[in-house]
Amino acid sequence: MDGARPSPDRHGARRLQAGERVLLVDQRGRRYLVELVPGGSFHTHSGIVHHDGVIGLLDGSTLSATTGRRFVALRPTLADVVLKMPRGAQVIYPKDLGAILLAADVGPGLRVLEAGVGSGALSLAMLRAGAEVIGYEVRADFAKQAQANVAAFLGESTRYRVEVRDVYQGISDEGLDRVVLDLPEPWRALPHARTALRSGGILLAYLPSISQVATLRSALEHAGFGLAETSELLRRTWHFEARSVRPDHRMVAHTGFLTTARRLVAGEAQLSSAR
Ligand code: SAH
Questions:
Q1: Which of 22, 95, 111, 169 is the most buried (most CB within 10 A)?
Q2: pTM
Q3: Cα–Cα distance list, 110 to 36, 37, 105, 196 (Å)
């Protein structure tokens, strides 16, 4: 998973190398994700950047384009990659990825079933948190895109398996620790999730519309789940410039609602869903 990389230099940073993707940020804050190819060049509004001038630099170096405009070259974070990587389906935004990891308590060694996989943004976050991820995705082209996105950032992983299949038709895996659903009708997967999850396991669904959440919440009550919770996350960035320090004018006001519930031992669902 963490493929062969050059050894750290005395500053503890690995030098940027051919074959990896770097984030180039220009003086106006525009960001570009570029795969470094020997002899390659990258054309932007701010001029041409020759890859050979980036290969071998320390992470965080500043360089000049042919126009003399300055760029910073950085190894991208998971959030940078999610926002820039090729998408089939709409990705889950970083603010929600972070919240999902904690809400579904995703950690090392846990077995997670994820459906649908889409572009693989959530897969990336859960794999990086150390989980074993089994993905179900109905669209073969999306499944392929997700696997390519994961491999490009994390390398080939034995902890990641994607199957082209419909989660509403059933879940073959058993004894799962978590089931994470990002698809339009998660309630149709509840009977399968109930069987596939170990007791005490967590189900999480990510939904854009509150009417979907209402349908899910009422289905959860009758499906052997308890301690259901729904939340949304609002993230407001700030503008800092001389004496103008204030919230940014624009924000992403809505993405999706997170709903979690615990899989209870049979017969105890009624008690615990009374919150
Ligand atoms: N969480 C993903 C985005 C998922 S978009 C990410 O972060 O990148 C929703 C995905 O669910 C789509 O790719 C769609 O094809 C898939 N999907 C919809 N219904 C499904 C089903 N019944 N079984 C499996 N996948 C499904």
A1: 22
A2: 0.90
A3: 34, 37, 9, 14
Which atom of ligand 1 approaches the CA of 120 most closely? 8
Q: The domain 21-76: what is its CATH number?
A: 3.10.330.20
Which of 7-16, 26-35, 135-144 is predicted most confidently?
135-144
Give the distance (Å) from ligand 1 centre to CA of residue 234: 23
pLDDT digits (tens, 9 = 90+) for 40-88: 999 988 889 999 999 999 999 999 998 989 999 999 999 999 998 888 8
Render pLDDT for 89-141 as a digit per residue (tens, 0 to 9).
Answer: 888 999 999 999 999 999 999 999 999 999 999 999 999 999 999 999 999 99
- Tens of pLDDT, residue by residue over 165-208, are 999 999 999 999 999 999 999 999 999 999 999 999 999 999 99
In angstroms, the CA 34 to CA 22 distance is 5
Atom of ligand 1 nearest to the CA of 188: 22
Domain ranges of the chain: 21-76, 80-263
Residues 6+ apart with CB under 8 A from 124: 78, 81, 82, 149, 150, 153, 154
Distance CA 192, CA 263 (A): 12
Residues within 6 Å of ligand 1 by CB: 89-92, 115-116, 118-122, 136-139, 142, 166-168, 182-183
Give nearest CA residue, ligand 1 atom 18: 183
Comparing CA positions, the residue from 24, 14, 11, 18 lying closest to residue 59 is 14
Exposed e or buried b for every residue in 49-62, given b needs 16+ CB within 10 A?
bebebbbebeeebe
